[in-house]
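re: ur question from yesterday

yeah so i grabbed the chain u mentioned. its 289 aa long if i counted rite. heres the sequnce exactly as i have it in my notes:
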Amino acid sequence: MVAETTRPQEVMRSGHSACPGCGVAMGMRMVLRALGTRSVVVMVPSCVSIISGPYPNAALNVPVFHSAFEVAAPTAAGISNAFKVQGIDDIPVLAFAGDGGTFDIGLQSLSGAADRNDDFIYVCMDNEAYMNTGIQVSSATPRFAWTSTSPRGNTRRKKQIMEIMAAHRIPYAATACIGFPDDLEKKVERAKEVRGTRFLHLLSPCPTGWKMAEHMAPKSAVAAVETNIFPLYEIVDGVQYTITHISKGLPVETYLSLQGRYEHLGAEEIRSIQSEADRTWADLHKKDR
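ran it thru and got these structure tokens back, copy pasting raw so excuse formatting
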């Protein structure tokens, strides 16, 4: 007789407002399931706030605070400090923000909170553009990718947010993606065990903005990891790097060909992306201890 396994309680209800196949909604569900029902979540104006929905029809079964766009981190820090003043230290506070609210508009306040090592978990739901307002380019948009404001392809490289967070020497930072749910949930659970600023960079494909079918978000997320476009690793105290998944080293075209936002690329651009992925993976291996 096989013993029944205890499944974590779902925190995200089924009736959310995401687009079909939304990678952000999948990522939120996984994070919240690992976080648990005894928690508080901070939202900013973005896809995450639309998905969670307004009271009394909210999709999250935990207390949610909707903050201004640029202050997810200090808002979460303030709630966490308020708990500590009351002698409560067993309720994790988590901030959800998109790449625009993290890489761009919220970077200053995130940096300040990380510098103070305020006690909260920050999850960047990275779909690599301002999807909620019309698929405009952000500093998380990869080079050569189409957006509504870079119709011929983005000319800038994606900002290295993990290196920025590592430079703050925070206790814990990690990359994760919806294509590897066990890896993601383990990292959330580890983040819960640590005190101070904890940062998760979560790749969350957007079928609409990435120009692909509704069911393709998980497959594209897996391909991003297996081609070394988006490696999975952890950083402890800003210096100790650990790779958490050894990729198959597939050619980047395996990933790029899944998305219409790259359909305009020529051989030279693909070689450039391959070269950068190879270099990133080699550099990460040198840091891994």
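noticed a couple things. The first strand starts at residue 40 and ends at 43. also Strands lie at 40-43, 64-66, 93-98, 120-126, 172-177, 197-203, 233-236, 240-243.
anyway ttyl
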